[in-house]
Write a structure and sequence with these properties.
Layout (H helix, E strand, L loop, with lengths): L1 E8 L5 H9 L3 E6 L7 E5 L1 H8 L8 E6 L4 E11 L6 E8 L6 E10 L3 H4 L4 E4 L3 E6 L8 E4 L8 E3 L10 E2 L6 E6 L7 H35 L1
Parallel strand pairs: 1-4, 2-6, 7-10
Antiparallel strand pairs: 1-3, 2-3, 4-5, 5-6, 7-9, 8-13, 9-12, 11-13
Length: about 230
Amino acid sequence: MQASLSATKRETRKKNEARRLRVSGHIPAVVYGGAAKEAVPVSVDPKTLLRILHSDSGVNTLIDLELEGGDSSQVLVKDFQLDPISSELLHVDFYRLAMDKVITVSVPVTLTGEAIGVKQEGGLLDFLTREIQVECMPAEIPENVEVDVRELSIGDGVRVRDVVEGVAWKPISELDTLLVHVVPPKVEEEPEEEEMSAEGADASVADGEADAEKKTDEGAASDGDK
């Protein structure tokens, strides 16, 4: 997915300016990377950026960052800071891309369908790896890696090697990495057995006490006969 975002260059990177920007409805940002040797401080609209971050492609959205004066760059969100209480955007870092060079990104794994092992066999779906690293051209960043689990029975699983056929990206994560599998249902201990075991233990104690009393009585009778 690709999106556009307007940005305004900032003259300074002081804290007072950052506060002033937030009061005016903008947030401070910095653009790194690319041919430029120095980072470029800018300001952007946090509402527009939040819509991009909440899209299906999220931080992997290719953004056309349009600067005042006509300059523009293709960037990705490298990092961002949220207010811990209000969850409002406070600051963002953009990374400028070279469109003819491959990049490495983390892509979420999504599951589709209902596994046979769950629906018909009573198993449990264990979703182990929720994102993998891939290498690709900036214009070919996948929104997600989709895994169809419908044919999975108990004991079956899907690994990275099973989802790389016919894709435009190269996996960086290990090919043997297990993404999802179906496991047998957990067997719970029946409480009745525990109760019976407890009753059996009580009975054994009672029998032991009875035997001890019997031996005591027999010993006393024997002494009396003497």
